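Notes to self after the call with IL:
- keep both proteins in one doc
- input above output, always
- annotate only the second one for now

Protein 1:
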Amino acid sequence: MRIDSVPPDLSGQPVRSGPGMLETMTPLLLPFRGTWIVENSPARRVPSHGTTAFGSSHAIDFVAVRDGRTAPVRDWRTAVATEPVDRFYAFGQEILAPAGGLVAAVQDGVPDLVARRSPVARMRYALTQLSRARQGARGLAGNHVILDLGGSFLVVAHLRNGTVAVRAGETVTAGQPIGRCGNSGNSTQPHVHLQVMDRLDPFAATGLPILFRDYVLHHPDGTEQFVARGLPDTGTVVEDRSLSGRAGAADGAPR
């Protein structure tokens, strides 16, 4: 398997960049181990989730994959009904702090929902989205952690019920476990959602641009491409390389 090294820039990803833009993007580490596929990337469009509400303009999602699949099973429920969340590779995987900071807020105790890959099940679920929005952060982000990065706030959302491992007021380091991947909040399949905002209150916040450090792109032809700084596009498979070989947390914010 060939590994190509990419210089420290946006590594060819389709991001609108200009003088000084890299300096304005919040650098993060990928918050997981193993291979995950990118969904709803701001490299593809902004706002990435179709709205600027709740500080989500530059949000990004990741779903765990193995051999191109998010779950080892596909059956009649995949086509027309809901599915148990524990059949998905992402569910229960350890989630790591993407940057060092002060824990500004946490939410735990939100039940994990059944998964919905079926278009029929997704359509029914979409009809209830307004009611979740009315619940605020609990209904949208589910179990989550918000880190104060010193001038900006990082949200790690949709954690598994009962697994949030940090408390408000605690200082965490990049790479420190903060919970496990779940399917709580506004989520149809176990995944992790990241976004950076300019203030703690998502109802008043503006989303901020992000980039990631020290990861590998897994190409369909089996080759790998190391990226020092970049923003992976929707549909690409990525894997963290900053934490490889480390048993614990990284030091503070990403270098």
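Protein 2 (the one to annotate):
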Amino acid sequence: MIDGIGDYLAGVLIVIGALFALTASIGLLRLPDVYTRMHAASKAGTLGSCLMLIALAVHIGEFATTLRALAGVVFFLLTAPISAHLLAKAAYSAGYRMWQGSVSDDLAETATASKKNGPFSADR
């Protein structure tokens, strides 16, 4: 009985994780600029991957596999937002501008101030 419930739960988690991964891939194709695409890939892709790793842990049921899957979930949750932030900051520095329909550009003031002061100014 418990094995059957675990299998159904793992199946549901796999399907939900796959739907999040599908949403991330559709976002990569349909969204207008690099920043919104990166947002879709980092948020939905991370959630989909985490759900699939949890499904693996539920399906296998061994302690070692569950521990590795949960370590993978923690790794995804810690590294995906940081890497997306750094990639977006690098894209902005490289000159990729936001979509014209974007509401605000919070880095515009920071970028103009750093260009004005230069990289080795005494103010820092």
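Annotation: Helices lie at 2-30, 34-60, 63-94, 107-117. The chain has four helices and no strands.
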